[in-house]
Amino acid sequence: MPSPSQVPSARPAAPGDRFEQPTLDGMLADPLQLDLRHTTFVVLDLETTGGAPDGAGITEIGAVKVRGGEELGSFGTLINPGVPIPPFITVLTGITTAMTVEAPPIEAVLPSLLEFLSGAVLVAHNAPYDTGFLKAACAAHGYRWPNPRIVDTVALARRVLLRDEVPNNKLGTLAAYFRVGDQPNHRAMADARATVGVLHALIARLGGHRVHTLGDTIEFVKAVAPVQRAKKHLAENLPHAPGVYLFRAADDRPLYVGTSNDIATRVRSYFTAAERRARIKEMLGAAVRVDAVECAHALEAQVRELRLIAAHAPPYNRRSKHPERVQWLKLTAEAFPRLSVVRQLTADGASYLGPFAGRAAAQAAVDAIHEALPLRQCTPKLSPRKASPACALAELGKCPAPCQLAISVEEYDVQAAAPLRAAFDGDPDAVVDPLLARIRKLSDAQRYEDAAAVRDRLAAFLRAAVRMQRLSSLTSIEELIAARRTERNAWEIAIVRRGRLAAAATAEPGVHPRRTLDVLRPTAETVLAAPGPTPAATPEETERILDWLERPETRLVEATSGWASPARGAARWKMLLQASRA
């Protein structure tokens, strides 16, 4: 029969032992948010043959389960590596080939070890070495690696201890420095117990760094900039709720505005190694506090973020800062209409296309239209009864010459203005078909660069037409009410008026959504009609609302008019747009 030292051993649980994680209000607590004294650790050490991790080579396992400074159990066994143990390993550890002959192989021990590790945080000194062997063994013998959270006492010591305290971070050095009762001797169980003592001593040091939870400990070990460590307290006392957060400077200026479904968790991430943006670290240096604005649900948070960014133009936000800078394409309302690039929509009877992000995109769409339709390109206002001097385009035959009265107002409208208005509001084929024919002709002539230029101009026009028609479908509705059921059976409710979010609320589980809506509706913002497809909100806000409405789980509750897009609208050319991007 094998000796007791050759079989897995675990101390039986005492009557007071509890291996499960602590709970809060009857629910399992988030392990990352648990205080370290409530966290269950399994401190592990392996002895090996000294080779590379390949699924074998482990000669001994020692593991100790602890929580709150108390030992909950232990697991220890010799392992038959299946190969002779090298002499230098025997000299180092004292483990001989003869000692492991009758020991179980690693595949016989893995199920018990993985069960012992279940639900706990794995701790090891130089953890990548030990976990590398265990992962390889699991892969070699068909076991799933549980991927536990890991704390490496070597990395933790590097962060906690000063260079003049210890000459190195070897286990023996740290155990001697902290006067640990169990000194390491290159045997798995002894080294595991020594690591337990080192772990407890390092945890005692963490309090001075404001590190009290497992999540804080894992992030503390990572490479975090000094400014992130110094300003970490700004993330304290924030709500775990959807909303907007504002980093503010000493003079109360908003430096950065963001949004999240969980404000507290998102703001904490700015003070971890995951945040690597140089400008954000610069922003943290100037920030003195973080304000939180709780919202009913994620849509309201996104909308509030856009409005706050537009109102304050925070220096460290890059997007959505200047919604007033969008460009529009205007087909003037006159006898012989022409195109003009403008910044604002007015109630002047003109037709508009947009919005465009910049002047270059707007000009590309202008060039596409001029290539497809016989629209005049001159800027003077022309009289339908009195001729005026012709330009070079008229002399070259590239303009119907309304300036010379070569075309009547009615003919000009039929040939140029009316098809363009239809392309803006509905069917864009009057622009698309001539340009596609032009692209084919250039491609057949192997003038591929010229064909690509026409393609890009067509894409600029189509993107704007698709965007405007999509926006107009919602902004034309005086009021639309929608609701979305969440995973916890609450209902997110949104009142949208002319494409602007007028009110938002959440009906909690057990509360009828209609009751919440009846309370919400009288408090909703009054939104007046105005010209253009996005009169009451920025294009970005209306597009965020559209994205939320178009989700499959969103339900339409009420609408003052139908929500629809043109049957032969620009959206049917989306495949062409995708191909142009590719």
Automatic annotation (TrEMBL):
One of its GO terms (cellular component) is excinuclease repair complex. PROSITE patterns: GIY_YIG. GO terms for molecular function: DNA binding; DNA-directed DNA polymerase activity; exonuclease activity. Residues 240-318 form the GIY-YIG domain. One of its GO terms (biological process) is DNA replication. InterPro entries: DnaQ, GIY-YIG_endonuc, GIY-YIG_endonuc_sf, GIY-YIG_UvrC_Cho, Ribonucl_H, RNaseH-like_sf, RNaseH_sf, UvrABC_protein_C. Keywords: Exonuclease, Hydrolase, Nuclease. PANTHER family: UVRABC SYSTEM PROTEIN C (PTHR30562:SF1), UVRC/OXIDOREDUCTASE (PTHR30562). This is DNA polymerase III subunit epsilon. It comes from Catellatospora coxensis. The gene is dnaQ.
